[in-house]
Amino acid sequence: FRLALIQLHVSAVKSDNLQRACGLVREASAKGAKLVALPECFNSPYGTQYFKEYAEKIPGESTRKLSEVAKECSIYLIGGRSIPEEDGGKLYNTCAVFGPDGALLAKHRKVHLFDINVPGKIQFKESETLSPGNSFSMFDTPYCKVGLGICYDMRFAEMAQIYGQKGCQLLIYPGAFNMTTGPAHWELLQRGRAVDNQLYVATVSPARDENASYVAWGHSTVVNPWGEVIAKAGAEETVVYTDIDLQKLAEIRQEIPILSQKRSDLYGVEMKK
């Protein structure tokens, strides 16, 4: 099946972001994409100073539009970190997923908050305004089972391993790595998660805006279960297409059967809730 990653240029005007995102979703559908993903923070600039201002409930303006365009195009739509979600007086970094009938299939709240300090390069603390999610998020399609993470979640190998144990064959991480961590770790982490678990990994970033307060690395990418990069964007706004070959995944798992060779008598990773 064909996967499309929309590397959107994000402005400060929410309505413009939504309009352009929906237009690119329609374009991707017209080119045969069955599953389409938007980047982290596609409807607002990325920064703790913006989260409260742009926050919405689910359902709300942004998610209603995503639901409508998913139904219109009859696709599975992963809404990136579609919005800073407000719920019960707290804000969450939330990705909403909609099916071909427009129904909400999953809602992933970012589990690991991006609190880092690399002296002289970047300091960021999502926990100043956001609360963490407390659950894994998976959804079924006629093609395969999909697991969700958001950006910093990708650094935690245990999360990806559990998704693999639960039958996911594709992991999607809407993300916005920056100009420090992007060149160093963006592709490396994706290839590691893919090889470790013998599945496809896709990441979808906002396009780079050198004038933004937080500059995203871009380079939305798809990695196959062999660890090969099979599709990759540059820094500009674009749509990345790739065909997910589940037969290739099955062959790799048969050739190198690590999933059946794990020593569960010696070690294990478990999902607690």
Automatic annotation (TrEMBL):
Coiled-coil parts of chain: none
Recorded catalytic activity of this chain's protein: 2-oxoglutaramate + H2O = 2-oxoglutarate + NH4(+); 2-oxosuccinamate + H2O = oxaloacetate + NH4(+)
An individual GO BP term: asparagine metabolic process
Stored Gene3D superfamilies: Carbon-nitrogen hydrolase
UniProt keyword annotations, A-Z: Hydrolase
Enzyme class: hydrolase
Segments forming domain CN hydrolase: 1-246
GO molecular function list: omega-amidase activity
One Pfam family, short name: CN_hydrolase
The keyword Hydrolase is annotated on this UniProt entry: yes
UniProt-listed InterPro entries: C-N_Hydrolase, C-N_Hydrolase_sf, Nit1/2_C-N_Hydrolase
GO cellular component: mitochondrion
Keyword Ribosomal protein applies: no
EC number(s) from the headed UniProt entry: 3.5.1.3
Assigned protein family: Belongs to the carbon-nitrogen hydrolase superfamily. NIT1/NIT2 family.
Protein name, UniProt field: omega-amidase
Designated gene of the protein: Nit2
